[in-house]
Design a protein that fits this description.
This protein is mostly beta strands. It has one domain: Jelly Rolls. Helices cover 8% and strands 42% of the residues. The chain has 2 helices and 12 strands, in the order ββββββββββαβαβ. Strands 8-5-10-3-2-1-11 form a 7-stranded antiparallel sheet, with helices on one face. A 3-stranded antiparallel sheet has the order 7-6-9, with no helix packed on it. Strands 4-12 form a two-stranded antiparallel ribbon. It is globular. The model has no long low-confidence stretch (mean pLDDT 90).
């Protein structure tokens, strides 16, 4: 089953969801609303979802688990979290995550902002009628990361 965002989540969010790396994503607070200080995104992923280990050179990342169970990997540390818990991914440090529950919903803050533009430019619009995530080309997505000072540091984590 393809999960969708709850209707009552983040009232007033004016951005539409899009597919990114097989999960549903949306920008809740774009950097344009904070003078570039930060941006906030929401990610809705299914069991086993894990992006490659990667490094943000320009921004810190704060992950807030809203629903589900997620393992975060920061440098050589594994942090197992559930709803209501938070983890920090400092800039310049390799990190990733792995969804351990059937689905997981995360709010992620990036400070400063700008990286949300990379996510949205590599996304595909999502609709409630979608029966599967949109296909994507990981090579194309990664090749567009350099201007955002984002680089892959290793394969996705596994259970």
């Amino acid at each position: 089953m393809i999960p969708s965002f709850p209707d009552d989540t983040f009232p007033g969010a004016d951005t539409e969801p899009f597919w990114f790396l097989g999960g549903r994503t949306r920008i809740l607070v774009p950097g344009s609303k904070t003078g570039g200080a930060l941006s906030v995104m929401e990610f809705l992923d299914t069991a086993g979802h894990a992006p490659p280990h990667h490094i943000h050179e320009d921004e810190d990342e704060i992950w807030i688990v809203l629903d589900g169970e997620v393992s975060f990997f920061v440098a050589d540390q594994r942090i197992d979290l559930h709803a209501g818990q938070i983890a920090h991914g400092p800039r310049g440090v390799p990190h990733s995550y792995l969804v351990r529950s059937e689905t997981a919903r995360l709010a992620v803050a990036f400070a400063p902002s700008c990286i949300e533009e990379w996510f949205s430019s590599n996304g595909t619009p999502a609709t409630p009628l979608d029966v599967a995530p949109a296909a994507f080309d990981i090579g194309d997505i990664l090749s567009s990361a350099e201007p955002f000072h984002l680089r892959v540091a290793g394969p996705p984590p596994t259970a």
